[in-house]
Design brief:
The chain has 488 residues and is mainly alpha-helical. It folds into two domains: 19-290; 296-487, Hypothetical protein af1432, CATH 1.10.3210. 74% of the residues lie in helices and 0% in strands. The protein contains 23 helices and no strands.
Length: 488
Amino acid sequence: MCYNIKNDLEKGMGKSSNINQKSTKAMLIIYRLFLKLAFAFLILAGFVVLQEKGADFENGVFIFAITSAIIFAVSYAITYYLYKYYNKNKFERAKKDPLKMQIVLMLRLVLFIIGAVAFIGGMAFAFVHFTGILIAILGLVLCEFLFYNRRLTSHLSTFSENVAAGVLFSYIYLCAITEFNYIVCVFYVITLLLLFAQEFFYHLTNISKHDTEGLKRSEMVQVRAKYFIRNALIYTLLYAFAGLFAVCGLYDKISSSSIATIIFQLLPLIISIITVVVLLYTTFHKSDQTANLPDYNTVFSAEEFKRKLAPLNSASTMRAYDYVVGTMTCKNGYCRKDGEDYYFHCLNVANILLDAGKYDENIMSTALLHDCVEDIEGCSTKDIERMTNASVAHSVDLLTKKKDINYKNDDNMSLYLQNILGDRVATLVKIADRLHNMSTLSHYSEGEVAKKKEDTKRQFIPFITSAMDRYPMDNAFFEQALFYFKNM
């Protein structure tokens, strides 16, 4: 059979990148929504205080807003914890030390409440003295610590997004208590500026990820521009509806309705109940969907895996094991995104093939050493040959991506896979390598995950299909990999 992976790639290749799709994980969306609502209601409460020139605890809107802010802040902390706890990655802090994670979240909630008190207090004195404005700003900064991120730009992006929602809520309140006038358009302009700041800081946060996601900076800017336009249109519609309600006098009619009053008072509870139901459904539904997909990240102890290699009785394989485990450590600068020593990736790739019944010293040595020439400075195929044999060195050389070639180019990638297909050992290792990589994506951005899944389906499904024709003795393993890639 004449293999032409380029043709197969072109048939199944979609031109649009999934990088411009934000999170599709329901729990992630929910906890971000809770965070936005907590800030929006808090800012609304501060605006009511500013309008009333003081905190009026008989004002129903103020009480509703501040209560809702606390409810949604607590809901955010709970949902965030559950999201981290149910994450498949074994290195998530909630899994390693649940009690510590809970304490940290409660401390963040305390900071949010302190910040909320400072913000409301500052707004109460803002009309009297400039110091009140500074206290209010400091309060919002403290509230922002509820959101966990180590990057300042990420905080600024989230803060801008949350404040934009708060400005909208304040605009709606102003429309409800006063006659509509064009001064309120200032709120709209402020919102657009905040939305622009959100996308600008988001771009800065992810600027280091452009290369890994396969996008040029100009393409990423275009993506963020599209998000800004979309969000601006959404807020434009919301502002227009709020203004229309004011012009038609619908706020008075709504506020005078007893049913509307009840719904208004119970809104936080209603939203919380709906969210918990959705959250529980998502958690169990997600478990059902992924139950049939195997976990290829199962090696957690180097010593235990070493014992699995013992029956091979291969000196060259043990030399390969010792070299990888002794070299590719975080201490030496070889660390994966989840914080573990890089050699665990090599052990897992070899373990995937062991579990598939590939008890062969050349396969094991190649699997252990497959990234060495590419990643370890000074390591060459000659070193691999001296450590093992010429056959393993040849397989590792086929798997090694050359530094002067752009493998994001489909022609180059197709030629790379075509060359690998000519060697059975390299083919097996490459598929196992991709299986493990696709099992360990939780520390990548949403854009990276979507891009990697898209690339895998487009490139590796035809690659495996051709491998099945060439190496039928390995079809059981190929079929297992094919099932995983199609259903991941």
